[in-house]
Amino acid sequence: MKDGFIKVAACTPEIQVADVDFSVDKIISQLEKCREEGVKVAVFPELCITGYTCQDLFFQNALLDKAMEGVVKIAKTTADSDMLVAVGVPVRANGKLYNCAAVIQDGEVRAFVPKTHLPNYNEFYEARHFAPYRGECAAIDLREYGQLEFIPPMEQTVFVCEEIPELVVGFELCEDLWVADPVSNYLAKAGATLICNLSASDEVIGKDSYRRQLVSNQSARLVAGYIYCSAGDGESTQDMVFSGHNIIAENGSILAESRLFENGITISEIDFKKLAFERRKISTYPASAEWDYSSKDSGFLDKDNISRERFSLEMGETALTRKFAKTPFIPSNQAERNERCHLILQMQSHGLMKRIAHTHSKTVVIGISGGLDSTLALLVCVMAMDLLKRPHTDIVAVTMPCFGTTKRTRSNAEILCDALGVTFREVDISKAVLQHFEDIGHDYNDHSVVFENGQARERTKVLMNIANQVSGMVVGTGDLSELALGWATYNGDHMSMYGVNASIPKTLVRHIVQYYGDTCTSDTLRNVLYDILDTPVSPELLPTDESGTEMTQKTEDLVGPYELHDFFLYYGIRWGFEPSKVKRLAKYAFEGDYPDEVIDKWLKTFYRRFFSQQFKRSCLPDGAKIGSVTLSPRGDWRMPSDAVAKLWLEDIDK
Description:
Distance between the termini: 17 Å
Structural class: alpha/beta
Largest sheet: 7 strands, mixed
Number of strands: 20
Shape: elongated
Low-confidence stretches: 290-303
């Protein structure tokens, strides 16, 4: 359970309808496999002990007695395991029959959780056999079936883990999810972070897609983990066919999913610290009820009638099987990635269009270097002018070569501007920078930060003054990754009148430019975009080699690989993971790509720079919010400029 990860399983055993001994043996066999895999919460289908499709056999005492024997037998096999298990079973109580989840741990049936909503339409006929749960409770005496020490209640219950307070488990059964007001809504309000659904959902064309969306959406709405476990083909009888569709979701993301018509075990790990973080962050998320933790049984909620039980888990490290993308900002699916890139370009250009129209700017002015960031910003400017139905010549693209500008980037800048039909200007700033060095007494051969920032600030001065000259506004080009690292010259490229790339991480910038190149109709434009994509990332602030073709300064050699920094940014800032947890996930995701010591080095660099450079982010210009991660001081990220990184840096070395 280290770092909040809990291994969970949705299990679809082979069953035979009304053959309890057969089905129980198969359930126990799958529980043994779950135990071997380190599963802590295992869920089985609705009424799996008897079979969901028993119909009027549910009126037979012989079947119901055998089912109780079966559930106690399953419970006894868990005596040496802390796994929390839920199996579906019919239960007699209050003179009625209820469709229940038997919750099992440590050799005992701990509770029976009844189904609230009974489908009685189309192929379903549950109301003929079962009573819906309406808040009543009962004590289920299992002594005649072999459980002697504990009499479990039948009531709606959530189970709270003593060792991991973020783990609170609630149960609903099949139709309880499909109704307009699902039971899991109330379980989440009572604090449940994991919803387990015991289901027997038959298969018809298109239902698997709807089921997947339903589980994904409910886990997102509740900010919860969700285990959906459905009956397999052993239930297929008469007119119904069952496929064993199992789904494990976390806050809208599908972590694992079974193939249809393949009985078996679906396993993944749910991150409950992540869920707790997101719930705390969302101010509109309802607070769970106040509970008396000194008592094992805290009674019922007045409104929702949900009791609370404690359970315990042995602590240890959870082996990870779920995937963590190396590039979390970039969809892995090509079609989804293209759609994302198209939408981002639309958002950027519409945001800029509004600013141009509001300020009545006759032009926009942009510094164009032949690098990725300025290329993307220029493409956005072109799209904004198209939206305004204004000519591309209203864009003034300025290239400002100096000591580190290579022939390749200078050429690409001009070719790009020519292909887009924008106004192109060249201002060589070498003389101005040399004069400035002379004015302040700086030696040209001293290639310190003064040498670099003197050029960056000169470029910004040129752009601002040209904007005054042509009644325009300066469009900034810096991206989200640079802002996180503070890789920008204060009051140099750090400053503009609108920053179109401020919410775009460096790894995503590349894909957006690639998408534009792939979809444009001009061969010239496409070719220059592809060459820009092949050019190393560099601020070009140190002198080139003698030929002027080779850059001597490459950003990723200085601050580290952007794919690592974007990974750190996503998990460390967006999700608030501890640095030690970010390190663990990075080593897991990038195994074979970077040695552990390299990840440690750049992770420390990330946190050190992130804290020390906040003062630059505290006075950023406006820029459109694009994704869920943004560092605008007016929006998602408000951090004191003088906060100390000691706690975070120490955690990396834990």
